[in-house]
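I hope you will forgive my troubling you with a question about protein structure. The record follows directly beneath this note:
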Amino acid sequence: MRQSLVAASLAFLILGCASGTGGRPDGGNPPPMGDTGVDAPMPPPDSGTCPMTCAPGEQCIGGECVRLECDPDTACPIGQSCCDGRCASLPVDPMNCGACGRACGARGFQCLSGQCRCGEAPACDEGTTCCEAGCVDTQTDAGNCGVCGRVCPGGQACVGGTCVIPPCEPACAEGETCDATTLACRCGGSAACGPSQACCAGTCIDVAADRNNCGTCGNACAATETCASGGCTDDVPCDPACGLGESCVGGGCRCGAGPACGEGRRCCSGECVDISSNVGHCGACGRTCSGSQACCSGLCVDTTSSFDHCGSCGRRCDSGTADGCSGGVCTCRGAAECFPAGTCSCIPPLPPITSGGCTGICLAL
């Protein structure tokens, strides 16, 4: 009786061992963290979609003949699982991280302990991509614009995954670029050009006198000509020299069909304009101020908030009776200006408030 029980037990163990490894494509190993423990399905039999008949030991997968490393009769090495006919280490395989077919993709380029990671950090959130610097938004990151490693050129920003030149206000002159960080116009690696200059190939050039860039970038004068006031001429030079944009004709300066522009005026497209106040030519020909700005002394200024030009050019608020400008009106701590008498002062808040702003008050002189 006892011998019969022992024999039955041995037979049960032998059958159990024989069926425990040959049928599991992962070699009978326990699933790693994140795996459901369900065996990965074997590749479907040859569907006939490959251009040729696959050799013995291969299967047609996705239109290609693939040599199988494992199948129900061929187990993977210990510690690996059979995923679509290939042996994979689920704890570290980024294409099968924690489970067959669970690819880390763009959110993490490595698999540790069955979990996708981006470098030393966890996998990136939805909408971000794992790049060398970490998780970034490739739609807005100028160092990884559209894809990892694509750096936008200097002065450009990343918008929708594309490097673009952002707008500056006022608009930059021809040849200048708008710096994406400061939103200021620049010529090459330097600041924007001065009133008598133009940005030619990243360098500020005096186009009023440069023979190779006379009047505009690239306009070279003939060997017998000189550049005077932005125009090539073999005529008698004008003395004194004509202003920028004017031409020297018979020893006399002209702006278009009219006479030379007077003091404080500039010849822009054949017309004399006051570049100190003209919103269409503020400080330089073609430099346009935005709709909410005024041209004050050659600079585009928002007169609704400028303390030095509050309401209009040159109207500076009195620092004794006001401390700000709002809506083109001088204010004291956001309230009315202390005018005509009194000073704009600050009363600290009363307890229990111990920090923060203060209340403006007009104190009589």
Q: What stands out?
A: The helical segments are 2-21.
